[in-house]
Specification:
Elements: H1 10-17, H2 21-28, H3 36-49, H4 55-62, E1 67-72, H5 81-93, E2 97-102, H6 107-119, E3 124-127, H7 135-143, E4 148-151, E5 160-164, H8 166-179, E6 185-189, H9 195-209, E7 220-222, H10 227-238, E8 246-250, H11 255-264, E9 274-278, H12 282-286, E10 292-295, H13 298-313, E11 323-326, E12 329-331
Parallel strand pairs: 1-2, 1-3, 3-4, 4-5, 5-11, 6-7, 6-8, 8-9, 9-10
Antiparallel strand pairs: 10-12
Helix pairs in contact: 1-2, 1-3, 5-13, 8-9, 10-11
């Protein structure tokens, strides 16, 4: 008669597998030095007996919960699905669970979520902080006392990080628009205190200056990645005396607001205005016309981030932080076309074409 699973102990598993209690313990704790043949014997005994270790007691003994926390700004962004899925798969293969939290772009909520993960003894945290990194916030992250991998952030510099080359993606997008005759090109993005926004602005300005065009500050809106900001700024700039002929939405959640504002004005894409988005999504692909985008591989970001974190947790990484920079490309689709007043040329980006 098979013993009840409630009464089974690690001693029963060891006896059935024909190994020592220490070997069973090492297998349960994920020790990679256990020989494959012994690990198979232990796993077979566990399956045959129906043994289930006490996860709470186990985590207290080894000071590990096999849980990884991930705090992102907006959990409902479809563009992040590939990142989450890829990170989950890497962690799941290693025996870790992924706990996903939504900060809603709020500084206080972001910190509470991070502190909560630390209190619950998460083994590691992945985060793309929406809060600008001040000295005080840097100290806060240090006090979490847990391995951290930054997602698309370069500050603080002491954790590992996975970033993408937004400067190149936006530089190529801006050059594409310039080649189509656009000179009044607006860009909407987050605060330059955050890496993606800062790099997008750098790529945009580099492309303009390479054509001897001086960027117009009025065409650069850099304050928030939230979708409603895209709608408000686009509505405002399109109603101005000198509206842009092209808009770059420099944030993965901003495209919907930009498109809504253009539709409200009754403008046609790309006949009246060209549009470039950021990040592949169903919206950019299924919109009529499909939207040109600055694109990077979200799944690759997820895989790298999870792998870097596992290396830290397992003590396989050097003391120096590792900063991974992944490619970023511009994909031209039907939402970008010749500027409406392409026949006129100016030396400054703020000059009105056809005026």
């Amino acid at each position: 008669m098979v013993k009840s699973a409630k009464r089974l102990t690690i001693i029963d598993v060891a006896r059935t597998a024909g190994v020592s209690v220490g070997t069973v313990s090492r297998v349960l704790n994920g020790n990679t030095k256990v020989r494959a043949v012994l690990r198979d014997k232990v796993q077979t005994a566990i399956n045959d007996l129906g043994y289930a270790p006490n996860a709470v007691a186990q985590s207290m003994r080894i000071r590990s919960t096999h849980t990884i926390g991930c705090v992102i700004r907006e959990i409902n962004l479809s563009a992040l699905a590939a990142f989450v899925r890829a990170a989950h798969d890497v962690l799941d293969e290693a025996g870790f669970s992924l706990l996903l939290s939504n900060s809603e772009g709020r500084r206080d909520r972001e910190r509470e979520l991070l502190a909560r993960l630390s209190r619950r003894q998460a083994d590691g945290i992945m985060i793309g902080p929406y809060s600008p990194v001040t000295e005080e916030f840097d100290s806060f992250l240090h006090r979490l006392n847990v391995p951290i991998v930054l997602i698309d952030r370069d500050l603080p510099s002491w954790p590992d990080s996975v970033m993408t080359d937004h400067a190149k993606g936006v530089r190529d997008a801006t050059e594409h628009l310039l080649n189509l005759g656009h000179r009044r090109i607006a860009i909407i993005t987050g605060t330059p205190m955050l890496y993606p926004a800062r790099e997008r602005i750098r790529g945009y300005e580099d492309a303009l200056r390479s054509r001897d065009l001086e960027p117009d500050p009025l065409l650069i809106e850099a304050s928030s990645f939230l979708p409603d900001k895209g709608f408000r700024y686009t509505s405002s700039i399109l109603a101005s005396k000198c509206p842009p002929t092209a808009i770059i939405a420099g944030g993965i959640g901003m495209l919907s607001g930009v498109l809504q504002a253009i539709r409200v004005r009754g403008l046609r894409i790309p006949d009246d205005i060209s549009v470039v988005g950021a990040g592949d999504s169903e919206l950019s692909e299924l919109h009529t016309p499909p939207i040109s985008i600055q694109r990077w591989d979200q799944a690759e970001v997820g895989r790298f981030a999870a792998s870097l974190l596992l290396d830290r947790i397992r003590g396989r990484a050097d003391a120096e932080p590792r900063h991974v920079l992944l490619p970023n490309e511009f994909i031209a689709r039907e939402s970008t076309g010749p500027a409406k007043y392409a026949g006129t040329r100016g030396k400054n980006a703020h000059q009105v074409l056809g005026a």
